[in-house]
Specification:
Distance between the termini: 28 Å
Strand order of the largest sheet: 1-2
Helix content: 10-25%
Length: about 70
């Protein structure tokens, strides 16, 4: 399974393998550090992002703000 990741800083997109789920990764373009959600949290994360009226931030523990 692959995950399409999008950097919240620069918008760069790339494919990651499932090993990246529930880990913090660094964008290869702008070097911003951000968290990839767990695979079972992806539908929930997608819902939060669609309902957000502005930027969505995920802290180091996985809590979303926005």
């Amino acid at each position: 399974m692959q995950i399409i990741a999008k950097c919240p800083g620069c918008g760069n997109r790339w494919l990651l393998d499932a090993w990246a789920a529930d880990r913090r990764i660094k964008c290869p373009k702008c070097h911003r550090l951000f968290k990839i959600p767990k695979l079972d949290e992806v539908p929930k994360a997608t819902k939060v992002i669609r309902q957000a009226k502005g930027p969505v931030y995920v802290d180091q523990t996985g809590k979303t703000y926005g």
